[in-house]
Amino acid sequence: EQPQKKKFLLKFSGGNFTEFEPGRMRFHRQDFSLEILNTSRGDGQLYEYSVSKGPEEEVWQVQLEVFEPVAHPSIRVLHRELSNGSCSLALRCSSERGDEVSYSWSGPGGICSGNGSFLNLSLSLRSAGLACVCTARN
Q1: Looking at the keywords, is Glycoprotein present (predicted)?
Q2: How many C-beta atoms lie closer than 10 Å to residue 65's C-beta?
Q3: Which segments in the chain show pLDDT lower than 70?
Q4: What is the pTM of this model?
């Protein structure tokens, strides 16, 4: 059976630390955090943090997920219907790029509030200046 291997990013011992990939990360002594610079999808993996105290070792594991950034969303009118002085609209918000994107809607007076990529509105024609905003994030 093949032995399992671990790749070390940083070792801290006796008040000193050694970076095994200099320039790729930043170690913060004040809170012992490790910042990975210029992350890419390849950085999404299981990481381990261990502290040795005499004959014992404490180990924490952290699964890092790296998402593709979300592109600016666009809003499309899917359906529009006018009747009896009111307007019904079906809107769709979408982003061309991004992983695990979630959408939310906002606007004045809570009329445009909602979650998800679709929004159905029924407005009086007097509300013609209404602006709905879609936010996309991951």
Answers
A1: yes
A2: 11
A3: 127-128
A4: 0.64
